[in-house]
Design a protein that fits this description.
It contains eleven helices and nine strands. By secondary structure, the protein is an alpha+beta fold. A hairpin with a 5-residue loop joins strand 6 and strand 7. Helix 5 packs across helix 8. The radius of gyration is 43 Å and the shape is rod-shaped. The protein starts with a helix and ends with a helix. The chain binds 3,4-dihydroxyphenylalanine. 3,4-dihydroxyphenylalanine binds next to strand 8 and strand 9. The site of 3,4-dihydroxyphenylalanine (DAH) has 11 residues, from strand 8 and strand 9.
């Protein structure tokens, strides 16, 4: 009885049960076997006693078994796991705000029949400057200081630069597709800048080019208007002023009223209330020639848009450096 009281789990219970009830080696089997060796008159009495003992042990074991089962059930209840419970959803990433706005612009231009093109970020000096009517002596190079690549690392033939704008793809597109042509080129560009809230060494532009018969400023203005109303979907102040870019003639700057400060002046708009947004104009004859297109037969307009600036305006981001920071506290807001 003491042994049975001390049983703590079903394994011990089984051991004790075997010890007494095993048919071959159990204590009770032995006892019953020994009974036939005692004198005949004692046998019935001993037999009855043995039966009583057997019954008593059996009862105690059964009771213990019931107790153990109950305990297991309680343990199971305490360890209960609801496998049907909904777990937290696996958090997928999302598109960077730059990519979101880029896709939106691509859709707008696709709807106007423009192709979406791509070009190399490591560009030759020829495509980045020379072919765009910016010879090596031209002061316009100072406005776009960039990262020149050690010439010994390339094929040696071309001087390589990290492209300062998406404009070199204008030349590549004209050489590849000829006229007539409609394309936009979103992409990453680089400048040697002292970085601050509105300048970064890496940012995004979207270039546009349309070449056809008798293209005029009216076509340029119409496409710009279509684009602006599609992007902002609200009243935005715009101004057009003459601007100089060697690859267009005439050239324009299109600015819009700063949406961060509402025109009062802030670090993003350099305290002017206006954001330079698009450089544009009618493609310079020299540029058409570089692209292998006859300026006597064809004309075109081009524009280059500050995609990064646009994203900053759209979301009210007041520091350009956040966009490339990879900071999840920033990115998770979009
Ligand atoms: N590439 C110029 C820049 O980065 C922007 C630009 C101005 C592009 C006028 C054009 C254009 O296509 O016609 O400052």
């Amino acid at each position: 009885m003491k042994e049975i009281q001390g049983i703590k789990n079903s394994k011990e219970w089984q051991e004790i049960e075997n010890k007494y009830f095993s048919r071959k080696s159990g204590e009770l089997a032995k006892l019953l076997k020994d009974i036939k060796d005692v004198s005949e008159d004692l046998r019935p009495k001993l037999g009855a006693m043995a039966n009583d003992v057997k019954e008593e042990i059996s009862k105690a074991l059964n009771k213990k078994k019931a107790d153990l089962d109950l305990q297991t059930e309680t343990n199971l209840e305490q360890d209960f796991i609801d496998v049907t419970l909904e777990i937290e959803k696996y958090k997928l990433g999302h598109l960077h705000p730059m990519t979101q706005v880029q896709s939106e612009l691509e859709d707008i231009f696709k709807s106007m029949g423009f192709m979406i093109l791509d070009g190399p970020e490591l560009e030759s000096d020829y495509y980045n400057f020379e072919a765009l009517n910016i010879p090596s002596w031209h002061p316009a190079r100072d406005a776009q200081d960039t990262f020149y690549i050690d010439p010994s690392t390339g094929s040696g033939k071309d001087k390589l630069v990290l492209r300062t704008h998406t404009s070199p793809v204008q030349i590549r597109a004209m050489q590849r597709y000829g006229a007539p042509l409609r394309c936009v080129v979103p992409g990453r560009v680089f400048r040697n800048e002292a970085t601050d809230a509105s300048h970064d060494h890496t940012f995004y532009q979207l270039e546009g080019l349309m070449v056809d018969k008798e293209i005029s400023i009216a076509n340029l203005v119409a496409v710009m208007k279509e684009m602006l109303s599609a992007i902002f979907k609200k009243e935005v102040k715009v101004r057009l002023r003459p601007g100089y870019f060697p690859f267009v003639e005439p050239g324009f700057e299109l600015d819009f009223g700063c949406l961060i400060c509402g025109g009062k002046g802030c670090s993003v708009c350099k305290q002017t209330g206006w954001i330079e947004f698009v450089g544009s104009g009618l493609v310079h004859p020299n540029v058409l020639k570089s692209g292998g297109i006859d300026p006597a037969k064809w004309s075109g307009f081009a524009f280059g848009l500050g995609l990064t600036r646009l994203v900053m305006m759209k979301y009210g981001i007041d520091d350009i450096r956040l966009l490339q920071s990879g900071d999840l506290r920033f990115l998770n807001q979009f």
